[in-house]
Amino acid sequence: xxxxxxxxxxxxxxxxxxxxxxxxxxxxxxxxxxxxxxxxxxxxxxxxxxxxxxxxxxxxxxxxxxxxxxxxxxxxxxxxxxxxxxxxxxxxxxxxxxxxxxxxxxxxxxxxxxxxxxxxxxxxxxxxxxxxxxxxxxxxxxxxxxxxxxxxxxxxxxxxxxxxxxxxxxxxxxxxxxxxxxxxxxxxxxxxxxxxxxxxxxxxxxxxxxxxxxxxxxxxxxxxxxxxxxxxxxxxx
Length: 237
Prior knowledge:
- This protein is mainly alpha-helical.
- The chain has helices at 28-43, 52-56, 68-80, 89-106, 114-131, 136-154, 164-174, 179-186, 194-207, 210-213, 221-233; strands at residues 9-10, 18-19, 25-26, 86-87.
- The chain is 59% helix and 3% strand.
- The strands form two sheets. A two-stranded antiparallel sheet has the order 1-4. A two-stranded antiparallel ribbon has the order 2-3.
- A hairpin with a 5-residue loop joins strand 2 and strand 3.
- It starts with 8 loop residues before the first strand and ends with a helix.
């Protein structure tokens, strides 16, 4: 997988905790511990050693069947950083490989409630890719879709991450345009500049998961806004 992202990016080791589009609180030390715990519980391997030798062999992307501990090692090394070392597109691809692997586990119906754990590890990897330079817009599309899928398949469990209303609020907050502005641009979108068309398409992509969970939203301002956006969504480019 090759990303069309120019230049290089730096990972700030002193980055404070922040809340991303998935509703997760990102902290380097906590994320390291949570990821190790999740992998140890799920992999059923007797040792917590990570085969660094395999990770160090550079490939264009991580294959889906690679040892899952290799992907944990990629995540750990990325979160630790090396004194603000430069991060290139190969590192982004490593993070995305870890995201794809754990996303596939989170989508596996046979894993039951453990799918929530795999989803959290997948979000961890996606956050690493985003820190390395992966576009937030694309990362949010991935987060929103996976959250909506698990809400539908496993139902809410009291955790805001799996709450339809919290997901709807996160989507509304992430939209790059207001409803009225999107409606105005939509009428003549073919004549619009490329960046405005891109903003309209981003709105459409962000709203896709809402089609799955709109009927689960509680009555109120958030549902009203989502319903209005969904009425408009079919007409967006």
